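Summary for the steering committee. The consortium agreed at its last meeting that each partner would contribute one worked example illustrating the joint modelling workflow. Our contribution is presented below. We chose a case with several input lines so that the handling of multiple components could be demonstrated. No manual editing was applied between input and output; the record is shown as generated.
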Amino acid sequence: MSDEIETSQEVFEHLQHLLRTNEIAAFREEFLDHHIYDQSQFYLDFSDDERLELYNVLSPDELSEIFDSIDFDEVNIEPYLREISPEYLSAIFDQMSSDNAADILMTVNKRERRAIFTLMSPEKVTEIRNLMHYDEETAGSLMTTEFVAVVANQTVKSAMTVIKSIAEDAETIYYVYVLDTQKQLLGVISLRSLLISHDDVLISDLVNEHIIKVDVSEPQERVAKYFRDYDLLALPVVSHDNIMLGIVTVDDIIDVIDDEAQSDYSGLAGVNTDNLNQNPVQAAGKRLPWLIALLFLGMGTASLIDHFDSLVSQASVLAIFISLITGTAGNAGTQSLAVSIRRISVNDEENKSFISLILREIATGLVTGAVTGVTIFAVVSIWKGNIMLGLAVGVAMFCAITVANLAGSLIPVGMDRLGFDPAVASGPFISTMSDLTSVFIYFSIAGMFIRFFT
Amino acid sequence: MSDEIETSQEVFEHLQHLLRTNEIAAFREEFLDHHIYDQSQFYLDFSDDERLELYNVLSPDELSEIFDSIDFDEVNIEPYLREISPEYLSAIFDQMSSDNAADILMTVNKRERRAIFTLMSPEKVTEIRNLMHYDEETAGSLMTTEFVAVVANQTVKSAMTVIKSIAEDAETIYYVYVLDTQKQLLGVISLRSLLISHDDVLISDLVNEHIIKVDVSEPQERVAKYFRDYDLLALPVVSHDNIMLGIVTVDDIIDVIDDEAQSDYSGLAGVNTDNLNQNPVQAAGKRLPWLIALLFLGMGTASLIDHFDSLVSQASVLAIFISLITGTAGNAGTQSLAVSIRRISVNDEENKSFISLILREIATGLVTGAVTGVTIFAVVSIWKGNIMLGLAVGVAMFCAITVANLAGSLIPVGMDRLGFDPAVASGPFISTMSDLTSVFIYFSIAGMFIRFFT
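What follows is the complete predicted structure of the assembly.
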């Protein structure tokens, strides 16, 4: 690949040149010869003027494939839609996969959408309208309605004829779904097993009825888990009464897995890592809201320390261990947060009850806190030659870690149960929260011990 | 699916019952009727005795499919291998996909491996031996050698005959690769386009020569990126002289994407989130090494504060802002760490030079630090009615954030350039490191300002 990558800028400039000099045939030959993903990258990189020229040179059908392959989660579609004539645009949407068309049309305002719909084929509009009803991040919102279906009392030969006739339009032809006359899903046959069967075998003799399928309202994480576990290329989506509605294909699931991982990761760090090519002011603008919010939460910790000012005046040695205790408890809280968020996102039937989760995290916190507490007790006692000071710091560390562990684990679980996205409880948030409780614990315990070491 | 999930425990118990009461025919019928993934879950859940019985009831071929579907990254294979007879075991490996067989046999010690090899078919052993040579986490280590190849001067009809004859063994038949007589890769045809073409068309007229392919040594992240961008089901792997060696299939790539995301995430939190079902002592054992290591790093910060003890004795108000400054700088460092690690892992041709990366992060740190510094200056000045104290805290905050930002960004980039895994520089590590620099900055600046506010 490396050759191609090194020269891709030259290829692009050559394409620009052909467009500007109006060498239509040469442009079409070279442009359409590229993989559709590369075509879409060129399209996005062209200038406004070049794109206007492009619409003269390519058919709506050719543009529809480009639109199908652009990830509009990451690209703002608006400026592109506005420069295309309504007739051309509706022809594009007519040719696109209905799931992708629905995704784009969701972002367009109602009036414009209606204008586009009036120029499109009524069947396609109905399909797209139906898809737009499904909740975001469910199987319904991911599926496409272009799948291959046959009936059970067909022969392999007649099924193959059906498949060949719709092969060009279907999103995948490698799974063939068997439906009854009410469109209920009976089973699946792989194209592979059709190919190696005799022409006159009946579909009903080949069909695999132990089919993995999902309800249209199933959340996308669950759908992704089926793909991972069962190594699927496509998964049928059915209504509550088993009517086949569409299929989710593996390429869409790769994007879901990627997005989910990205959002867990971004959440943990308290920063959105979606767009990495921003200038410093944009980047700072993205990070500052969290930082400033946490700064004010941190002010709570500061006023708490202020409240204990008399203790620090009595024994300035106490100031030494503030950051050690808040830092270590914050680290422990972040660990348990990360484990807890993962546990929610792989959320499956093995998931234990709320109570058993709490008990297990309390136990983990107690063990972690005990080991860390004893360690710091030993270190401080020897370093400062003061066992009572060591004891105060050790006990405070033990309590602070146990509480931070519990908080790191319970906050996301609680948010999840209440219907919020647990990934919002980021690592920095948990550390800053735990600063507050750790300081309170530390000074309360130090207050009890202070007469032994001043 | 929910019905099936609720009853899966009953199904399992019924299977156990059939095994124990030796109802072989009934067991085989029910067991083999399940999806191969479910079969593998049952297999792993059976007791030792039940598995020994299973080897009598199932053929090595049937077991080989179960072995193919188990993710041995997450399951320790050893105890299973040890309970199976050498003859049966070598028959399993003979039937498995060579990539999965190679993955498992890599983990077996040399002597045992040789014993298994002597009982296997020599061709399969050669295939597996070849696969074992490729570096981990490269295209070579992911690929399988079971692909479908035809030559260019064949007709569609004769190609379809080839495909049907090897359909059962090939990992995927949906892409057909066109090779010359030296086994060099010329292009690809989808099964879809073969199906809709006439029998007597020549392969050379259909072949798509703009093929996406990877070199056998290409890292797996790059391979995953091709799958994501080009929506592939399989990707051919070639040697440096374009000899076709194998294919990587999309199901293996989903596991790669998952593992990569998991390891970035685990790194950021300083805890391995691979195994979520551990008892509290195991869980604590996994978290403690990091915590204790960071505790000792934190002791550095504590001794630094100790060093500045005279400042705290003079103005105990200084203690109030220690955790605010270390916490906020730690949060900023974690954000820039997360962005930096993401940037490395999507590492591609757009990647800027080292110098421009540094300059951009310095600029982002300056902007973030300035806004946060001004905010805290205002808050502290008003709260404590002391502008000079506010100034000291504000300037310290500005410097601490700039440094933390730079460190969070440079440490992983530097580690990557030196050949270490940047994900080891976890969030907790960066916050603890930045505690040290923040405290130093804070007290140094406070020392300069102290005569104005005591």
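The two ends of chain B are 70 Å apart (CA to CA). DSSP finds 23 helices and six strands in chain B.
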